[in-house]
Design brief:
It is built from 13 helices and 12 strands. By secondary structure, the chain is an alpha+beta fold. The protein folds into 2 domains: 4-52 and 274-407, no CATH class; 82-252, no CATH class. Helix 1 crosses helix 11, helix 2 (18-52) packs antiparallel against helix 12 (373-399) and helix 9 runs parallel beside helix 12 (373-399). The radius of gyration is 34 Å and the shape is elongated.
Length: 410
Amino acid sequence: MLDFGLLREVLQSLNKNKLRTLLSGFTVAFAIMLFTILFGIANGFQNTFENEFAGDANNSIFIYSGRTSKPVDGYQTGRRIMFDNELYKTIKKEFNNNIEFITGRVYNNVTATFGVERNNYTVRAVDPDHQFIEKSEMKQGRFINSLDLANNTKNIVIGNLVANDLFGNIDPIGKYLDLNKIKFKVVGVFVERTEGTDSNEARIIYMPISTAQKIYGADDKIDQINLTYNPALSEQEALAFGNKIIDRMKEILFVAKDDQSAIRTRNRAREAQEINQFNGALAVLVLIIGMGTLIAGVVGISNIMIFIVKERTKEIGIRKALGATPNSIVLLIILESIFITAISGYIGLLIGGGILNAFNLEDYWITDPQVSSKLVIAATITLIISGTIAGYIPAKRAAGVKPIKALRDE
């Protein structure tokens, strides 16, 4: 049962010794504030990396063509490497067992017009599988399908920001857009799963790759090949799988095996490996600094509690002379320690959270720098326990001193 008399006595003691209380609380609040800011920044870095790659499937590989940097089999350096439908079909067939989804890409810039509205956009001509590689969610209608591909239809899927730009409040499904003076029917509107920012991805227009190759004179050329591999592959197996595909493409296209610029790749398995290594190193660094800050807080509150007990030796002697038991004296000092540490820890948490929220840190690659309340509560409890132990030992010793000796203490 709560002893209100004891609680009132604790509050009176704290109020009577404002400077002592303030110094004790400042030590704890400052430690928790730094702890909150450090772990918040670390979480912000991790959030940035997650958001940066959230628009693509976690098991994706993007393959780009470039120019050769080394001669091979009579071919000179500087040769432009071109992907085509035949290469795409070969890769899809030979590596089918470990390919989940695959698409080619053809790019083109267009001027889109609807009524009096006009704007410039990038067209991505793709296969139906592209929807699952790029993580595009349909807001209305449908995505490009196999019939569009087989029949070279003039059907397009537009990003939600394209719809906002050109159609406003008009439902775009079934309407026709002029793309460089050629009419295309809108069959779907997609949103990115990272929606919430003015993303360029939401200003893309998709059309069947077969249609783009006919209309824009690309013949059977492909700018890029994207795929996702079997999610069951381990990180190392995924890296090896990506390397096998590149080696096979170099063999088909007469590219030297050690030529790094002719065919470039972006494998999410490698990115995940690098991100995990960075996050691991960052977590260890922040943990060391955070624990250092916490230890400094522990030492600070411990020293202050020892000093407080020493300073109150005469008070303890008076209390004992008036009939206070040693246990009641120890309990009083411990409750003061817990009260100061708990309140100051909460204040430190509020200040740390306020500092993190007061500044826009996204320019420094820090996104939503929040810290788990459980982590901060655990740190505060650690300081409370430390302060309790630090106060208990000298308080127990002081409570055992005879009143007459305590009253003589200078």
